[in-house]
Amino acid sequence: MEHLRPVATGGPDEGTPVAPDLADLLRSAGRGDQQAFAQLYDATCSRVVGLAVRVVRDPAQAEEVAQEAFLEIWRTASRYDPDRGSPLSWLMTITHRKAVDRVRSAEAATRRDQGYHHQNQPVPHDVTAEAAHASLEAHRVRHALQSLTPVQRQALELAYFGGYTHTEVASMLDLPVGTAKTRIRDGLIRLRDTMGVGS
Questions:
Q1: Which pairs with CB-CB distance under 8 Å and at least 24 residues apart come from 171-175?
Q2: Is the Cβ–Cβ distance between 145 and 153 less than 8 Å?
Q3: Closest by alpha carbon to 140, among 197, 182, 185, 183?
Q4: What pLDDT does residue 69 have?
Q5: Fewest CB within 10 angstroms: 2, 32, 67, 189, which?
Q6: What number does CATH give the domain 1-120?
Q7: How many CB atoms are located within 10 Å of the residue 174 CB?
Q8: Which letter does DSSP use for residue 158 in this model?
Q9: What's the CA gap between 99 and 162, in Å, rounded?
Q10: 180 close to 195: Cβ distance less than 8 angstroms
């Protein structure tokens, strides 16, 4: 058994990679450090692309969204404020906004393409009324969302507009699951109260 080496005791294994400090990387990137930005990209790219895929549902579009998100992250890294959330939360918020913009842009293009067809189809009265009601409800929800705190709104947007589970929201916002659930619950209660919906 002479070929076996003794196992070292005490201290962490030197071969274990240490997760980079995203806040430090963002600060350095904000000062124009391209190497720090490359490390930030390597550390977060899979999660950014994953979120984009979840929202836009198309891997090719998701890669473009991720590219746009990282371009904005590079341009605005100096504006990151650690008092307003974790670095990962900041990155994911930018990504989510870019992805939602891409979906809205695609929907607008589809509506333009189909506009002529829809304008020349008879529309039953009840469908028109239903559409008007849905538009009013969407306006009320948007207005009510503005009454939430930024952290509540962010958690609700990921959970209900992004389709993520509480565990996924907690992971994306770098929070304990219980905290994420509390933010979502408190946000829903506040939304309900603002909109005057009975319990």
A1: 172/47, 172/51, 172/88, 172/89, 172/92, 173/85, 173/86, 173/88, 173/89, 173/92, 174/86, 174/87, 174/88, 174/89, 175/86
A2: yes
A3: 197
A4: 96
A5: 2
A6: 1.10.1740.10
A7: 15
A8: I
A9: 10
A10: no
Give the C-alpha separation, 55 to 164, whole Å: 10
Distance of alpha carbon 153 from alpha carbon 137, whole angstroms = 18
Amino acid at 198: G
Residue with tokens 């919906």: 197
Per-residue model confidence (pLDDT) at position 161: 73
Half-sphere exposure of 196 (CA within 13 A, CB side): 3
Q: What is the mean pLDDT of each run of 10 residues along the chain (199 residues)?
A: 47 58 94 95 95 92 95 94 91 94 86 71 59 64 77 79 80 86 84 69
Domain positions in the chain? 1-120, 135-199
Q: What pLDDT was estimated at residue 145?
A: 75
pLDDT of residue 1: 45
Both structure tokens of 40: 């930030």
135-199 maps to CATH 1.10.10.10 = yes
DSSP string, 93-113: HHHHHHHHHHHHHHHHHHHHH
Tokens of 101: 């913009």
